[in-house]
Specification:
heterodimer, A: mainly alpha, two-stranded antiparallel ribbon, 26 helices, 10 strands, B: about 525 residues, alpha/beta
């Protein structure tokens, strides 16, 4: 039995993040009945076997000593958001905003988790992505021409020498490192040629700036180290770049560049110090909040359709903002597990009925300028899992989805593999859909989790969805379903969540928080984010897996810290996965 | 508070018809005495197939009477520029993998079996392309279709999909094969999708920002100087990529190659301008820059509830605006000879565009296109010979009405193409073959047989029009359509010139009588 789920609420790559291996026997998908539940009739055989992979880090950490180097030497292109942030650093906020607006960089398609995972980004610059980068570079060149006096410091009619000096200095900022002599000569050849074509010095600046931003030195981060032919650490400059784009999605600031230049990024302690400093900056906070916003699929609120008169634009907006505030309030203080256990949240009047809060704002609390005030949510709530926005973002129009919610918890919180839709069972699924149409969600799930071949997959994720069963399409707590039948949210969790018995969503969250599966999954995904690696389903090509040594090493180290989000970021930042590179395939 | 996002759709709906595209160009000066108009190719698509009993004309050959669905083309005076086909089949190369629309779309334009589905975190039915699409096949094999630069452009008017699919929002696929994560584990090799522009502004920028600023009467020397300066930048970038290649591990070489290849296409275009002492854009004026707010919707949607599926607001106005802006820009690009190959897609096959008043007897109701099609319960209904009556019959009529809407708008843009003259004073449509295809036969089930299609234009290239050909019961291979068109570019035996291409060739041949070598 299989429920077709409209996964509109899922983030662009969130489910992919959890994949380490896919269940066998589930292949292909057909465009079947899109309208609803599709269980499989009794006696159907074939397909649907397998399930999600275990993720609990049970392997002895001693076998993973932290010296593993899973990532080869690489060339990493900047995402368009990173380019826009670089433009901001090189020009000003207004120009960066203009670029982001003109080239539609700011929307959710360009804020995927990890960066570059969107089909409109990709790890390679091809015709279309290159053309966009070229236009941005050209636009900034024109900006430099139009503002030559203020930008260059060379006055309104620059001398040729001043033009050369400025272009070389601009390129050093654009490349985020000193230029080699050959690079400088090559760049200044553009200046010479422009002047040779009869151009003015101002035009030489225009096309010199254009060239600097057209250069691979700007468009990529290298991870080659000092000796491109051998394994080894990144150079200080490469470390600074990786760290900065990881934490801020933008280029390194001056203190970080200075640290790189002074050789002060060589030890874990030095990197940790920089991480702590950068994490205090608004840029880092905003970027990582946005990253987790994408990670938890909250951009799905933009487009989700819920057939409820109680779900209007005001409620939608409030859910969106509540989620932003929740992340901002829980990422930077307290343990990482607060993300899935915290019961305090900033809500608006529009959300109060959804959370069953009759008095808003609470006595003595003054809402902020947007009308949001901090409240204690009822004890049936726990963290992001029970946030109204999180639940709504993956609802179906007419009802919540046990399977959809289960798949999300399975992949995003546990990094387990979600199996594909079993195309070969589509007709049988449709038939059983009809057969069980009037049953409770519990009965439907019982069928899925007990009847071969459905149980091979559904037993591994349905329980999470059932545990969230007390929340309707927009996240209201309810004890009965739409037909007035009692909802039973008690389940035995799958093995990868410890096989514990829980009776509610709050207990599910507490169970996940008390083990290591959630933090290990977060560690793995933050590494992918830092690496800007596009997730795959192929464990032979994916650099970082949840069960791999690199992840286990971080999880092991994380346990000896205060277990905050910052601690996890720091452990990722100093890990061999980030600072060391193997020689890779085919040395130059 | 980031609630600004939610004002967007209502704003777009309110824009109305205020922004239009300025009608484009003066005739261009012929580039060389004795030269003729170049050939062009414009691949166009409508979503969700058709309803057989409401689509098929009566009669056959040139003696047919158009159905209401087809009538907009007749009313627009396009009968002699049009061939109607029914009964094409994808079954000979159907691997059975992927969704109906999701795999039907790449099969439709590539003629290749779908080798797997892309792992994208969504439903898992996102079929990947087994080879390049025919627009790219023609571009690669027909020298006369090449211009400087990338040589092609792709546009889409609405990009909402079910669940993160690429397949349904892309008609064009490159010869460059790449490995991507496969649904079910492992990797699958796909032809690289050449994703279309959703925003008319971005389409405009991709084509006309190559033109130098200033009006066409501007000093050619100054324009040429600017071209040389830009070429200096691109040459520099190529030098730096070459340097990078000496440092990067071999595993990263393909990234550098792709990057360099993208630059070289433009660099060659600039070199041609320098060599000819003529800057692109001389005698050719860019169309008006579209407003950034005129753009279709995108993202994943799960709007499949209701019977039929109701929507809060209709999309016709913005949908038509985006379509006409896109086609205006493509038409201008053809006139300016910036590209000779393009694709134009109204929407993904899983179309979430909503229409008001198209449902019989419900003039005020708004329903979404593809979701409503899934209310149909039986494959036989849409492939049957008569209306099933009741709600199912009403749904069929709704689908037919929507297709009629699309055909009305498509007729408008084809008429504009017909009336537009190139630099030789010839009709663009006469020198452009415009297939108008759909990814499935009907709306829900048995999607691979009895597929309809149209061929417009290309009369100066030998295309013969004015007929309706019905192959039902004796399906023609869908690739017969492409080989019929290929004759316009490659002559009477196109297959012999495309042997190295990947598309399925067994039993494939041009449809007889639709092409004659031009005199």
């Amino acid at each position: 039995m299989h429920e077709i789920t409209r996964w509109s609420g899922l983030p662009t790559t969130l489910l992919a993040l959890g994949v380490t291996a896919l269940a066998g026997g589930c292949t292909g998908v057909v465009d079947g009945n899109k309208a609803g539940m599709q269980p499989t009739p009794p006696g159907v055989s074939g397909g649907g076997t397998g399930g999600s992979s275990a993720v609990t880090p049970t392997v002895d950490p001693a076998t993973c000593d932290g010296t593993e180097v899973p990532v080869p030497k690489r060339l990493v292109r900047l995402s368009f958001n990173q380019i826009a942030n670089s433009v901001r650093a090189l020009t000003d906020d207004a120009e960066a905003a203009k670029i982001a607006s003109t080239y539609e960089i700011g929307d959710s398609e360009h804020r995927t988790f990890p960066p570059l995972a969107s089909p409109r980004e990709g790890s390679t610059l091809t015709d279309k992505t290159w053309a966009t980068g070229d236009k941005i570079a050209s636009d900034i060149g024109k900006y430099a021409f139009d503002n030559v006096a203020t930008v260059s410091g060379c006055g309104a009619t620059p001398t040729e020498d001043c033009a050369r000096t400025y272009v070389a200095a601009f390129a050093e900022r654009a490349y985020r490192r000193p230029l080699t002599a050959d690079e400088k000569t090559s760049l200044l050849q553009v200046v010479t040629e422009v002047l040779g074509f009869g151009g003015t010095a101002a035009q030489a600046i225009q096309f010199g700036v254009y060239a600097a931003l057209e250069s691979p030195g700007f468009l990529y981060r290298t991870e080659f180290g000092t000796d491109a032919k051998a394994a080894g650490p990144l150079t200080p400059s490469e470390t600074a770049n990786q760290l900065s784009f990881f934490l801020t999605d933008g280029p390194p600031d001056k203190p970080l560049l200075d640290a790189a230049a002074a050789g002060a990024l060589a030890s874990s302690a030095q990197v940790t110090e920089q991480v702590a400093r950068i994490l205090q900056t608004p840029a880092a906070k905003q970027n990582l909040q946005d990253a987790l916003f994408s990670y938890f699929g909250l951009f799905g609120l933009d487009t989700v359709v819920v057939d409820s008169t109680d779900f209007n634009s005001g409620v939608r907006n409030s859910m969106y903002h509540e989620a932003e505030l929740f992340l901002a309030n829980n990422m930077w203080s307290g343990p990482l597990s607060n993300l899935i256990t915290a019961r305090k949240s900033m809500i608006s009047q529009a959300l109060a009925p959804i959370y069953g809060i009759s008095v808003f704002p609470p006595a003595g609390v003054t809402p902020d300028a947007d009308g949001f005030a901090l409240v204690d949510l009822p004890d049936n709530r726990a963290g992001i899992l029970t946030q109204s926005g999180f639940l709504t973002a993956r609802s179906r129009p007419d009802q919540p989805s046990v399977v959809g919610r289960g798949l999300l918890v399975n992949s995003a919180l546990l990094c387990a593999a979600n199996p594909p839709f079993p195309a070969n069972l589509a007709d049988q699924i449709a038939a059983v859909n009809t057969m069980l149409a009037e049953e409770t969600e519990r009965k439907k799930s019982d069928y899925r989790t007990s009847t071969p071949p459905c149980n091979g997959c559904h037993a591994s994720f349905d329980p999470y969805g059932l545990a969230l069963g007390n929340f309707d399409s927009i996240g209201r707590f309810t004890t009965v379903d739409a037909k007035g039948r009692p909802i039973d949210a008690s389940v035995t969790l799958p093995p990868n969540a410890g096989s514990a018995q829980v009776k509610s969503a709050a207990e599910l969250a507490q169970t996940l928080a008390s083990g290591e599966a959630f933090s290990t999954c977060m560690a793995k995904n933050l590494m992918l984010y830092a690496l800007a690696e596009i997730p795959t389903t192929d464990t032979t090509t994916e650099s970082v897996t949840v069960s791999g040594c690199a992840t286990k090493a971080i999880a092991h180290m994380f346990n000896s810290t205060g277990k905050t989000f910052n601690d996890l970021i720091a452990q990722v930042a100093v890990s061999n996965t980030l600072v060391q590179r193997s020689a890779g395939q085919g040395a130059p | 508070m980031k609630s600004f996002r939610f004002a967007r759709r209502s704003f777009l709906a309110a824009v109305g018809g205020a922004v239009g595209l300025r009608v484009l160009l003066d005739n261009m000066v012929a580039a060389a005495a004795g030269a003729t108009s170049p050939p062009r190719f414009l691949l166009t698509h409508w979503p969700v197939g058709t309803v057989k009993y409401l689509f098929k004309p009566t009669g056959s050959g040139s003696n047919y009477t158009a159905s209401n669905i087809i009538k907009p083309f007749i009313d627009a005076g396009l009968k002699d520029d049009m061939t109607i086909l029914y009964g094409l089949s994808q079954e000979p190369f159907n691997s059975g993998i992927g969704g109906g629309h999701e795999s039907g779309t790449p099969m439709m334009t590539t003629g290749c079996p779908v080798p797997g589905t892309r792992y994208n975190g969504g439903e898992g039915d996102d079929g990947v392309a087994g080879g390049p699409s025919f627009d790219q096949v023609f571009l690669q094999n027909v020298p006369e279709l090449k211009t400087g630069g990338a040589g092609y452009v792709n546009a889409i008017c609405d990009a909402r999909v079910d669940s993160l699919e690429t397949s349904t929002q892309c008609l064009s696929y490159s010869h460059t094969m790449r490995s991507v994560a496969k649904n079910g584990g492992g990797n699958v090799t796909e032809a690289t999708p050449l994703l279309p522009e959703l925003s008319p502004l971005q389409l405009y920028l991709s084509l006309f920002s190559e033109m130098m600023p200033g009006d066409p009467s501007a000093n050619q020397d100054e324009l040429l100087k600017a071209v040389k300066m830009r070429k200096s930048v691109l040459d520099f970038s190529l030098r730096e990529l070459q340097r990078l290649a000496t440092l990067a591990p071999a595993s990263e070489k393909s990234k550098i190659d792709f990057h360099a290849d993208a630059i070289r296409k433009i660099e060659m275009q600039l070199q041609m301008q320098i060599d000819s002492n003529m800057v692109t854009g001389a005698g050719c004026m860019a169309p008006m820059k579209p407003d950034a707010s005129i753009i279709g919707s995108k993202g994943s949607h799960n709007d499949y509830q209701g019977s039929p599926t109701e929507a809060p607001q209709s999309d016709e106005t913005i949908h038509e605006q985006v379509g006409k802006l896109h086609m205006g820009i493509i038409t201008a690009a053809f006139q300016c000879d910036l590209v000779r190959v393009a694709t134009f897609q109204w929407s993904p096959g899983t179309n979430h565009v909503s229409f008001k008043g198209q449902y019989p007897g419900r003039p005020d109701k708004i329903y979404m296109h593809h979701p409503t099609s899934h209310v149909v319960q039986d494959a036989g209904i849409s492939l049957g010979n008569s209306s099933p009556g009741g709600v199912q019959g009403e749904i069929m009529q709704f689908l037919a009405n929507v297709q009629t809407w699309y055909n009305t708008k498509h007729a408008d843009v084809l008429v504009a193409l017909k009336n537009a003259k190139d630099s030789f004073g010839n009709s663009l449509l006469d020198h452009t073959v415009v297939p108008y295809v759909t990814e499935v036969s009907n709306n829900a089930h048995d999607p691979r047989h009895n597929i309809p299609a149209f061929i417009f234009g290309g009369k100066a290239l030998g295309m013969q029009h004015g007929t309706y050909l019905d192959f039902e019961g004796n399906d023609r291979h869908h690739n017969d359509l492409w080989m019929t068109i290929a004759q316009a570019y490659l002559g009477a035996d196109p297959l012999s010139k495309l042997t190295s291409e990947k598309f399925h060739k067994d039993g494939v041949k041009p449809i007889e009588g639709l092409w004659k070598a031009p005199v």
